[in-house]
Specification:
The complex is a heterodimer of chains A (228) and B (110).
Chain A (H helix, E strand, L loop, with lengths): L9 H21 L9 H15 L3 E4 L2 E3 L4 H8 L1 H18 L8 H26 L7 H27 L6 H33 L24
Antiparallel strand pairs in A: 1-2
Helix pairs in contact in A: 1-4, 1-5, 2-4, 3-4, 3-5, 3-6, 3-7, 4-5, 5-6, 6-7
Chain B lengths: L2 H17 L11 H9 L26 H27 L18
The chains are: A mainly alpha (228), B mainly alpha (110).
């Protein structure tokens, strides 16, 4: 879903740039509550993994493909604020070094994939997790539903931006129908990858999964002596 | 699994996916590009100012072999992302007192 330069006009790109900058600045403050010495390496790993995952385009029919966006995945693994930072770094590296996604469109891409992607994914994840049994095995399915919905929601937000600032005279309704249709299918792929990855991490290190924190039993207290 | 083992395993998976797996990815346009083509706004796309970057389009300048050039670009991208995101995370994290048990699964601070 990487928006290239030129799709959206300058005022819209400036506006999304301001929203993206504000969102990232706020996330830098809020991520502090999610990150400590133990979870900081996870943030780097999650970002690196999502960069890799985004390289794997899977076919979704009719000569179209989709790839992991990773917002829901990052939000469940490291928390929504840290997740938004992870996706923003991925988008920055892609725009600067891989020419994937435009430079004036970087703000748009951060808004769509980092902010909308992470927070839609995380809110849906929390809602689904709240109605499922409070077990570790509920984390991955809840994350998958969050992932499933995050993609069409991001596609809808793109369409709204296109309606406001698209440079080509194309009917918004046509764009909306096509974007929603294809990105619902892509969302299924997003859900599968997110569910599998979250399930794997929950299996080996549930304590490192931000979304599973309240389910991991507290470690027993132990007395440690400090060497004199 | 120790934290170090976990992180190294995850990183190896990411490097394999980007360095080797990416060659087998679909080369069809993604959802947005396809919709842009179908509904008629694809031509409004402009070339990225970074399109002459050595790793533009996930290839490596000067490496003709697509498998090698693509794999190299993927590996470099993964490592760049790891260093930048990890650096940001370390910079904004809460400083916890030095603890020699970081390799054990311990409950996070509440």
């Amino acid at each position: 879903m990487h928006v290239p330069d030129g799709f959206l006009d300058a005022p819209t790109s400036i506006a999304t740039g301001v929203v993206a900058a504000g969102g990232v600045a706020f996330a830098l403050r809020k991520a502090r509550t999610e990150l400590d010495d133990r979870t900081a390496p996870m943030a780097g790993l999650v970002a690196a993994f999502i960069f890799a995952g985004q390289m794997i385009n899977f076919p979704v029919g009719a000569g179209t493909s989709g790839h992991l966006l990773g917002g829901a995945l990052a939000a469940v693994l490291v928390g929504p604020w840290t997740g938004a930072l992870c996706i923003s770094v991925v988008l920055l590296v892609q725009a600067l070094f891989m020419a994937d996604g435009g430079i004036t469109a970087l703000g748009t891409n951060i808004v769509l994939m980092a902010l909308v992607g992470c927070f839609t994914g995380y809110v849906v994840f929390r809602l689904v997790a709240a109605v499922l049994p409070k077990r570790r095995s509920s984390i991955a399915p809840a994350a998958a539903v969050g992932a499933l919905l995050s993609v069409p929601v991001a596609a809808t937000v793109f369409t709204a931006l296109f309606a406001v600032g698209g440079t080509a005279p194309v009917e918004t309704g046509d764009v909306l129908v096509a974007m929603l249709g294809w990105h619902t299918v892509i969302g299924i792929g997003e859900a599968v990858v997110t569910g599998l990855v979250v399930a794997s991490v929950v299996t080996v290190r549930p304590d490192l999964v931000h979304g599973a924190r309240t389910l991991v039993p507290a470690a027993e207290l132990e007395i440690r002596t400090v060497p004199a | 699994m120790r934290t170090r083992t976990f992180v190294i395993t995850g990183l190896l998976v990411a490097l394999l996916v980007a360095g080797v797996g990416s060659f087998y990815a679909s080369s069809h346009p993604d959802g947005l590009e396809y919709v842009a083509g179908k509904t008629g706004f694809l031509d409004s796309a402009e070339d990225s100012p970074t399109s002459d970057s050595p790793f533009a389009d996930y290839q490596t300048a000067g490496v003709d072999d697509e498998r090698l050039g693509g794999g190299l670009a993927g590996v470099i991208g993964v490592l760049l992302t790891l260093v930048i995101a990890g650096g940001v995370a370390y910079a904004v994290r809460r400083r916890t007192p030095a603890d020699d048990s970081v390799d054990e699964p311990v409950e996070a601070e509440r």
